[in-house]
Structure formats: C-alpha cells, structure tokens
Write a structure and sequence with these properties.
The N terminus is likely disordered. It is elongated, with a radius of gyration of 15 Å. Strands 1-2-4-3 form a four-stranded antiparallel beta sheet, with no helix packed on it. It is an alpha+beta fold and 78 residues long. Helices cover 29% and strands 21% of the residues.
Length: 78
C-alpha cells in the first residue's frame, strides 16, 4: 500500500486543487512504490546521498487554472 503526502483537496476556494509545489509529493509516491516492491533496489538507489540521473514529468491536461499557490481542476477531473 502506498501512503503519499500529496493529495488533492476539495475546498470552498473553488473546487479540487493541488499545491503548485506538487513535485515532492509525486517523488514520494515513486519512492514508496520502489521501497514496497523492490527493497534491495531502493537501498541501492536511495540508501546514500548521490546524484540520481533521472527525471519525470507530470501533466494535468488543459483544464486547470493556477491561482496564487494552487492548481485548480475543473470539477470531476481528479
């Protein structure tokens, strides 16, 4: 089971939103998945402080709006 620090929230501010700084939350999901499914590889990758030559991209589609420090989604999109 994955436990993530990132979650979409519905609020009175106009719908479902994520923080603009969502990247650490997505990285947490990726690390948790590797740790729970491949413990030895997790230790090889994350067991010591080294440069890790990887990248990832997240896309939310066209139906978003960024207001201040939040990414808002149209209702029903998340």
């Amino acid at each position: 089971m994955l436990l993530s620090i990132l979650k979409a929230e519905a609020s009175n501010e106009g719908g479902v939103h994520l923080p603009v700084d969502y990247r650490p939350g997505f990285m947490s999901i990726i690390k948790s998945a590797i740790q729970s499914e491949a413990g030895e590889q997790y230790e090889l990758i994350f067991g010591r402080r080294t440069v890790k030559p990887y990248t990832f991209a997240v896309t939310f589609g066209d139906e978003i709006e960024i207001i201040e420090d939040k990414i808002f989604f149209k209702a029903g999109r998340v």
